[in-house]
Design brief:
Methylamine Dehydrogenase, Chain H; 4-stranded antiparallel sheet; elongated; 21 strands; 267 residues
Length: 267
């Protein structure tokens, strides 16, 4: 539905009313937001959880100004929540918070921006369905919110109301989030993803969800696999752990082709 004040569906582009000098755009679930050149954020659309950030839950067919945001440098929108990266490196989010996607340590929905706990040096922000992630200036990536498919990438499956560190990810050049999974791109073309994998979302020739980053097949990274996980398991980073007596073949796949393997014997 377009938000030009008419509430009439349109199969051609219509002008958004009242937004001038927009420099970035974020689209969530039935709502949209624009970052304007003076650092303010304006949102429009569905507002049942306060995802428009203007202090109430009344939906709006025209843009409304998000309260208390005057120095945003980037924005991201998820399923009924929105986040803004501020000039100093802090992040504020607003809207739905049932899985902790606002990152403020609570599960309380907020109609106005609330600060994400523990982040003071973020360089970018992304939002998935019910989770969000930030890259920090140090190169670390942190995520928060829903984690039932492992989309936070911290090796666990429990959701988090505060940011947790993604394991094995450092200095990505780009981050992207889907509904229930997350991906990172690195210099040289390596890509790693984590979270839901029911339909092969992670690109590793598997359909098993992963709470740790795995390498996307066909990129320059290495994918490690154990032929018998009951004997020995192996992490996406090549760390093997014996589990029971027996043999297993450890294989390394690079750019979609197996180029090395070895038999690991657990005694």
């Amino acid at each position: 539905m377009p938000w030009d004040g008419s509430n009439i569906d349109s199969n051609i582009p219509v002008d958004v009313t009242g937004v001038n000098m927009a420099i970035a755009l974020a689209v969530g679930d039935y709502h949209s937001c624009a970052l304007v050149s003076n650092g303010a954020v304006q949102c429009w659309g569905y507002n049942n959880y306060g995802q428009l950030g203007n202090g109430n839950t009344a939906s709006s067919g025209t843009p409304v100004t998000v309260k208390g945001i005057s120095n945003a440098t980037a924005i991201a929108a998820g399923d009924k929540f929105t986040c803004a990266l501020l000039a100093g490196g802090t992040i504020k989010c607003w809207g739905r918070n049932n899985w902790g996607q606002l990152g403020d340590g609570s599960r309380t929905h907020s109609h106005i921006p609330t600060s994400v706990t523990g982040i003071s040096s973020a360089s970018s922000i992304i939002a998935g369905g019910q989770h969000a992630c930030a890259a920090l200036r140090s190169g670390v990536v942190q995520c928060w919110g829903a984690n039932y498919y492992g989309q936070l990438g911290n090796g666990a499956w429990n959701s988090s109301t505060i940011p947790v560190r993604v394991q094995g990810i450092n200095t990505p050049t780009h981050l992207a989030a889907g509904m229930d999974h997350t991906c990172a791109l690195f210099s040289g073309g390596v890509m790693r993803c984590w979270g839901q994998n029911r339909y092969g979302d992670l690109g590793n020739r598997q359909t098993t969800d992963s709470s740790l980053p795995v390498t996307v097949i066909g990129t320059p990274g290495v994918l490690w696999q154990s032929s018998n996980a009951a004997t020995a398991s192996i992490t996406p980073f090549g760390l093997a752990t014996g589990r029971s007596i027996g043999n297993t073949t450890i294989s390394a796949t690079t750019a979609g082709f197996i180029n090395d393997n070895a038999v690991l014997t657990v005694k």
